[in-house]
Amino acid sequence: MAIRKFGTVVAMLACAAPAFAEAAPKEKEVWITIGTDALEPARASFQQKGLALPAPALEKGGVAVLRVRESQLETLAAAMHDKLNRCAGFIAHDTEQQALAAVEGSTAPQSLASLVSYNINNGPSVNAMLSGVQELNIRNTINSLSTNWTTRRYNVQSGADAATWLKSQWTTIAGSRTDISVAFFAHSWLQQSVIATITGTTHPNEVVVIGGHLDSINQSGSTAAAPGADDDASGVASVTEAFRVAVANGYKPARTVKFMAYAGEEVGLYGSNAIATSFKNAGTNVVGVLQLDMTNYKGSSYDFGMVQDNTNASLNSFTTSLISTYQPGLTWTNITCGYGCSDHASWNSAGYPATMPFEATMSTDNPQIHTAGDTLTYTGGTAANSVKFAKLAVSFMGEVAKGATTGNTPPPVDSGTPGGTINTATFDATLKAPRCTASGAGCDSGTLLNGRGGLGPEVNRPNTIGGTCVDGTSGTYHSDESNDRLKVATNDGTNLAAGKQVTVTATVWAYSSTADTLDLYYAANASSPVWTLIGSYKPAGSGARTITATYTLPAGATQAIRANFRYNGTAGSCTTGGYDDHDDLIFSVQ
Ligand code: BES
Ligand code: ZN
């Protein structure tokens, strides 16, 4: 196999020239995941060639797992291209375990993200940015990307050069803002991904991703011209314009926004897969991903084709509400793009909610993609169609990340779990800490924990079970450390119950991102707590910060969590430093 990712996952593409054609394939067997709708056409094509397609080992959620000889992958790629009226990817894995994990990932995709409610309440800021979107900027970016290099292929120098160019464009856009950074995400191949980050003001640990793929491909060979104007310079250009209007309007998002240009999409979602996997491993809470891949060709009477597979249903429905609200008159229809057709699938299989509005329906998309004919000229020399997508990206950014542009007021950020009741705790005079007695999807301390020791409004201090763990009294309220709020809620919005994954959200006032640490603990029995460490976390900076952590609820009717926020020292459930704050939250579990 010519292409490997982390030495394990091997991904193939169906429409573009298979990258494995560059090296003699070794005869071995691999496991592939493929859309079940592609099975019959693939089987027919194999039969015509006197070959038999093996029966699937598993079919689940529209995805089949089967074992094929590595040499058969090329036949399969050709079959997918010939028989299906669309591009359809399949993913090859070295082991059955990896293939099965990919299927599980695609059927249980929302396990990681602590879900937020998507709502529309940021009109003034969104409209300010929308009025700044300019077709000419998008056109210029498409033009540069599609004509400066013969190809933006992932494994050649010109592909790497295109990434360097984009990074410098984005760095120029970022200007002098210290809350914005632009960086490469390096890979094991030449082309790097590019990521621009605007750090959220109040919810920096909740991340919104807006991306497209930087690489291009010519299906007839690795040295052939691959301008990739529509696929996907148009997506990257739309993302770039959203980023530009954000900065031009002084937009400061409440949540962190990351603009991404992925390397290596055309050879199997390589770049996005590496990024999404690393975010998953870091426990990053990505609350919404918008993927823009092909935005500048109007193939259909519909303005947007909403990709239904490997995307999140509630984020899709929210995205269509953004269209009706901010671009009334534009139309959309549901489409299915095929298993793993673009980078949204990487995020989805890493457990994050993703959405992908597309330029057409599957049968009416740009016929020139993956050829030398995918030029700006082919789409009329204008970026008019991409304007709709840049505007959709702007409304997605403003409404998912909230915050405000210069002169506007940021709306409230609702981090509530949809569908479930988050109870607000009251002080329990017996246990001596805030408690939610009613059952529900979560429990929130509200304002009860705000402050530390005698500093600030923390009534009923120290708010630890039994009053046994007292707070340090050094320093000043909201200059030095305090743990101000604790919330625990199920990730799926159902009631707190044994075995459920929950997210703890702690709001702290940090003095230092290096010296301060939050130790989070849980106890199965609040009346006689034995504290188990969930983890120790550092705030991303000073001031008000939210820190999240997940754990699985044990059995026990009345449970508790503890925040031990300390200045220096080592992890402990009741550290004794003069700046240390300890707070508990008690809640009912079914
Ligand atoms: N932009 C295409 C995906 C696409 C093509 C969507 C046509 C809708 C209509 C993307 O760059 C691509 O080529 N994807 C590959 C799959 C990937 C796993 C290599 C494909 O669809 O073959
Ligand atoms: Zn493509």
From TrEMBL:
Residue ranges constituting the Peptidase M28 domain according to the UniProt record = 194-388
Organism whose genome encodes this protein? Archangium gephyra
Q: Please name the GO terms that the record assigns under molecular function.
A: aminopeptidase activity; metal ion binding; metalloexopeptidase activity
Keywords annotated in UniProt: Aminopeptidase, Hydrolase, Metal-binding, Protease, Signal, Zinc
Keyword Hydrolase attached: yes
Region forming the signal peptide: 1-23
**By what name is this protein known?**
Leucyl aminopeptidase
An annotated GO BP: proteolysis
Pfam families, alphabetized? Peptidase_M28 (PF04389)
Q: What is the lineage of its organism?
A: Bacteria, Pseudomonadati, Myxococcota, Myxococcia, Myxococcales
